[in-house]
Write a structure and sequence with these properties.
With 462 residues, the chain is of the alpha/beta class. It is built from 15 helices and 18 strands. The chain has 4 domains: 131 residues, Rossmann fold; 126 residues, Hect, E3 ligase catalytic domain fold; 102 residues, no CATH class; 37 residues, no CATH class.
Length: 462
Amino acid sequence: MRKIHKIEAANPALIIKKRVAAYARVSIEKGRTLNSLSAQVSHYSAFIQKNPAWEYVGVYTDSGESGTGVGRTEFQRLIADCEAGEIDIVLTKSISRFARNTVDLLETVRRLRELGTEVRFEEQNINSMSGDGELMLTILASFAQEESRSISENVKWAIRKGFKEGKTNSFNIYGYRWNGEKFIVHPEEAEVVKLIYANFLSGLSAETTAKQLREMGIKSYTGMDEFSATSVRAILRNEKYTGILKLQKTYKASHLDGRERKNNGELPIYIVEDAHEAIISKEDFEAVQTEQARRRKAGVFANWSINTSALTAKIKCGNCGSSFHRKGRKRANGTRSHYWRCATADDKKKGECRMKDVPETKIHLAAAEVLGFEEYDEEVFAESVVKISIPEDFTITFHLVNGSEVSKPWQNTAKKDAWTPEWRKAHGERMKKREYSDDQRQVRSAWMKAYWARKRNGGSET
């Protein structure tokens, strides 16, 4: 007897496309242009999209960034997308474009390999997933790192040789223009520099001068940016306005991180006298440096335009850590009271803090008690108290110069304090003049009798 067997049709296997991205970087410092970056983007876009087995994700690009670190914006975005499982293959031109730091390169490649993401280096024909991929990467990345170090050392040597000869880098600063050999005074901007120094020596703050310059419509030498207090302070610190060049004030300790550090004696500093025409006299410049040091030491008390007291900048919130600010309010009796409020509670944009306000009179009374005086003495307070903290509502903690801490409770008696005999008498006169109907008088009389009955019995005042 015949047997018939049915063979089911096989389902065609679905082709799962690999999600592919590319990373490109050009270094402006080596003379490459943005045209090179555009060419890399076009190349990889076309190369990925013509492969039917690949799905195009995009090209991540960084320009003018050093390859010695991994702190590049688009590079970090690429890694984040790989960690999110959005990329299977990363294409890049060479090891030097990906990174010149061997340790960071290997750590990044290993990290991506653990995620299942493959990295392909076009010039070296290396695949991070292959058996000998990591060995080749280690060897070639070491060469790339050494090349970067060699270039960095050559640049440093040239710059330091120029410093020894009294030569500076060619750049512009406000008040001067660089003509290829030295700084040339810009007359209009020089007058602004003189104004900045004169204002400061007259007692004005950098913030006040910056506001004045903005109101005058004065821009930076690019004509794009407005003056800020930071810009004003930078001009006040720059010795170039006296005709002096101070060379090698900063340096880069390592070509790997590229961070500039202040030269505190690690390397020689070269001073070039009369390098160019001065805008500010040396005497005025030194006077400004002395005044800046004094103001830094005095803190907020250096600014005469700010209404300060011995409590200013000394009260800290134990809840959020912000400083307390002095505020004022008008009482119902016409007098004015002052209190201290947490900066965070005062400005909701900074966050949320529910620490209660502290009346200034309560701080004065507590301080007098802690320091052993009948009345608050501002001079004694300033010499004896380092700071005040408000750890919780209705508690004030004094931190004394001898290292001890004393906490004092306080009660809110603002309403009671405002209800003076004079105010009570005036209020009574106003109430007598009010006209009530018979019904209103009866209701008011009954309410007052019930109120005082509760008071005598120790009940609620409401």
